[in-house]
Structures are given as C-alpha cells and as structure tokens.
C-alpha cells in the first residue's frame, strides 16, 4: 500500500502567522528565499536598495517586484528600501516591524555589497593587489550588516522565545575561497553564526549559516550570458528554506551543529 503524499499546503500552514525579514532580496538567493517563504504564507519584509528609482549596478530586480511576487505566492510581501550599511535605516526597519507586528520569527541576512565594482578577471588576484574598497564592501556591507540586523532583530524575537536567524554564506569544505578578503568575510559569517547560536541557545532562538553553493543568479547570468541557458537548467535563484526553517529537526540543540 502506498502512503499518500502530504499536500504541501498542509505542511506550511503553521507559517501563515509568521513574520520574516529577508535582507538583500531584490534578486538572487535573497529573492529565492523570500519567494519560498511567500509560498508558506509568511509575511516577508523585503529589503534592499534596488527600487523603481534605480537598481544596483543596473542589474534586474527590485524590492517591489520581489514583494509583489511574495504576495502572489500566498504570503504578504512588504518592500522596504534600506541601505544596510546605514545603521539608522536598519533601526527604522526593525522599529517599524515592532510597531506593526510586535514579533519577528525569522531573519535572513543575505545582504552583501562585496561584489560591487568588481573586476572579475582580477577577483583571484593576491591580497596586496586588491582594492581596499572590496574589503569595505565585504565587511561593512556584508559581515557588519549581518551583525547589526541580528542585534536589532533579537530583542523582537525574545519575548516569544522562538526564532531563526539565517546567514547566507559561501563555504567549500574549509578550502580557501581564492580571494583573501572574500575568504575572511565568509569565514567570519560562519563563525558569527556559531557564536550567536551559543548565546541565543538558552532563549530558543536558532542561528545557522547557510551555504547554497553556486547559483545562477541575475549577477552570475549577467557575467556569463553565454552560459545562461545551461545555468538555468540546473540552478535557480530560490531555495526551499521555508520547508524546514521552523521544523524541529533544525532547532539548535548543540551549538556545534550550527555553522554548517
């Protein structure tokens, strides 16, 4: 006798009352996660700098387009223009969430300024030849932005004694990532997830570092248009994170399981 499949809608119904923030969600991995959460019925605050007035380096995708797509998939998408390198704007974001909902269930730290103004032919150049602006983009608009958003999100999560913080990162079985600034930034993100998980464990808030691997995002496709068709066949800028982000299997019971 074949066991009937459980309908997807019945699996994700408990998430309909949940509130999430996905930073850097105009496109790419952030957009993919936001859409998956939308399919789960989540209210998703979609943040980034790309809006109708202009997009980052002319790439396709805006926060409004992502928010609309979230709503079309059954959630509620709320676009909020926010430069995550500006602490005041981030503080305003979380103050708004507190005022409008009084709770936050999930924060996805995906914002990343480390790819801007890159000469990709020189990405693997030795560190003494790398422009210092790339360090600033990776650490100030990347690592620090993750820290600030998490610092402001946690007080909104604590009253409910539940929550999940996801840091998207890059990881290759602890191998060197080919660029010193990049390798240090991504390693720091994973280490930050571990430290946050240790400190938040008593409060029932989980923290993980999520490395999706190489994905055919809008930026990747723009860099290699001739590979676009092949990339689209095996890689999409979305993830099924909504299926597991509040599941018991992903709750942190030991900090050593977190930075994976």
Proportion in helices: 25-40%
Shape: globular
What percent of residues are in strands? 5-15%
Q: Give the name of the CATH architecture.
A: 3-Layer(aba) Sandwich
CATH topology: Rossmann fold
Overall mean confidence score, pLDDT: 82
Unreliable stretches, pLDDT < 50, 5 or more residues?
A: 1-12, 234-260
Distance between the termini: 37 Å
CATH superfamily: NAD(P)-binding Rossmann-like Domain
Structural class: alpha/beta
Reported for the largest beta sheet, the result is: 6 strands, parallel
Count the domains: 1
Q: Strands across the major sheet, in which order?
A: 3-2-1-4-5-6
Structural overview:
Residues about 1-10 and about 235-260 have low confidence and may be disordered. It contains eight helices and six strands. The chain is an alpha/beta fold and about 260 residues long. It starts with 7 loop residues before the first helix and ends in a 26-residue tail after the last helix. Helix 3 links the parallel strand 2 and strand 3. The chain has a single domain (about 15-255), classed as NAD(P)-binding Rossmann-like Domain (Rossmann fold, 3-Layer(aba) Sandwich), CATH 3.40.50. The chain has a six-stranded parallel beta sheet with strand order 3-2-1-4-5-6, with helices on both faces. The chain is globular. Helix 5 (about 130-155) packs parallel to helix 6 (about 180-200).
């Amino acid at each position: 006798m074949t066991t009937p499949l459980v309908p997807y809608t019945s699996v994700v119904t408990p998430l309909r009352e949940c509130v999430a923030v996905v930073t850097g969600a105009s496109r790419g991995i952030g957009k993919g996660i936001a859409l998956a959460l939308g399919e789960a019925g989540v209210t998703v605050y979609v943040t980034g700098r790309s809006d109708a007035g202009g997009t980052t380096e002319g790439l396709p995708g805006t926060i409004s387009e992502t928010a609309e797509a979230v709503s079309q998939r059954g959630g509620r998408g709320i676009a909020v223009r926010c430069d995550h390198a500006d602490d005041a704007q981030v503080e305003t974001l979380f103050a708004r969430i507190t005022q409008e909902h009084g709770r936050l269930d999930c924060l996805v730290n995906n914002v990343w300024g480390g790819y801007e103004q890159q000469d990709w032919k020189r990405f693997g150049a030795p560190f003494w030849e790398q422009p210092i602006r790339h360090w600033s983009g990776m650490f100030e608009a990347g690592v620090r932005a993750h820290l600030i958003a998490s610092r402001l999100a946690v007080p909104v999560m604590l009253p409910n004694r539940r929550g999940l913080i996801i840091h998207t990162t890059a990881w290759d079985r602890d191998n060197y990532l080919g660029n010193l600034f990049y390798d240090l930034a991504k390693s720091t993100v994973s280490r930050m997830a571990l430290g946050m998980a240790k400190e938040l464990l008593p409060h029932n808030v989980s923290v993980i570092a999520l490395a999706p691997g190489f994905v055919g995002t809008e930026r990747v496709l723009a860099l290699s248009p001739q590979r676009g068709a092949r990339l689209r066949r095996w890689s999409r800028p979305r993830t099924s994170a909504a299926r597991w982000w509040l599941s018991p299997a992903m709750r942190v019971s030991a900090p050593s399981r977190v930075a994976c």
